[in-house]
Write a structure and sequence with these properties.
Blueprint lengths: L1 H14 L11 E3 L6 E2 L17 H4 L3 E5 L2 E8 L9 H14 L6 E9 L2 E10 L2 E8 L6 E9 L3 H13 L1 E3 L5
Antiparallel strand pairs: 1-9, 2-3, 3-4, 4-8, 5-6, 6-7, 7-8
């Protein structure tokens, strides 16, 4: 239950109508090979396994199934006056987990740079399910959030999918 609350908080934070607009002209994302697009209303049936907190991934603009791994992502723009740093977001997420007594569920919480873009990588494990969240720097012109969810048995494959996905994201750079 607590992990569902955390997932909902992360999703709501990035889906507030007051802070983002849905666009995607400046982000190029390569979909992993073997992916099957999950379309409503049959998305849940197509999962093949039940996941405890998959709703936030399925509600993203783009949702896919790669074997027994769920991938969801969407792009957004944060208004400059509301943009938080990745460090602020990281501290907020860690604070919520601490308040709920779930610090031990955090596998990884770090800010890293890939392809000249800063990301917060947030990985958790709860009740045999991993959730990996990727948040690009919201202080850039365009940003994105992605999540993958999988069972413990799929960890080796999911780690490869996640790393390949991150490496295949390209943001167009503004030319001044």
């Amino acid at each position: 239950m607590k992990i569902k609350i955390i997932s909902l908080i992360i999703f709501c934070y990035f889906s507030s109508k007051n802070t983002w607009a849905q666009i995607n002209p400046s982000i190029s994302i390569k979909i992993p090979s073997g992916s099957v697009k999950l379309l409503a209303p049959n998305a849940e049936k197509n999962l093949g396994q039940s996941f405890k907190s998959h709703a936030n991934i399925l509600s993203m603009k783009n949702a896919y199934k790669i074997n027994n791994i769920i991938l969801g992502f969407q792009d957004y723009i944060v208004k400059k006056e509301k943009a938080r740093t990745l460090t602020q977001i990281k501290k907020e997420l860690e604070g919520v987990m601490a308040e709920l007594g779930l610090q031990s569920n955090i596998i990884q919480s770090e800010i890293t740079t890939k392809n000249q873009t800063k990301y917060l990588i947030w990985k958790t494990l709860h009740d045999g399910e991993y959730t990996y969240t990727l948040i690009s720097d919201p202080q850039q012109a365009y940003s994105m959030i992605a999540k993958i969810m999988f069972k413990v048995a799929e960890k080796a494959e999911a780690d490869i999918v996640f790393e390949t996905f991150i490496n295949d994201i390209a943001f167009k750079r503004e030319v001044n």
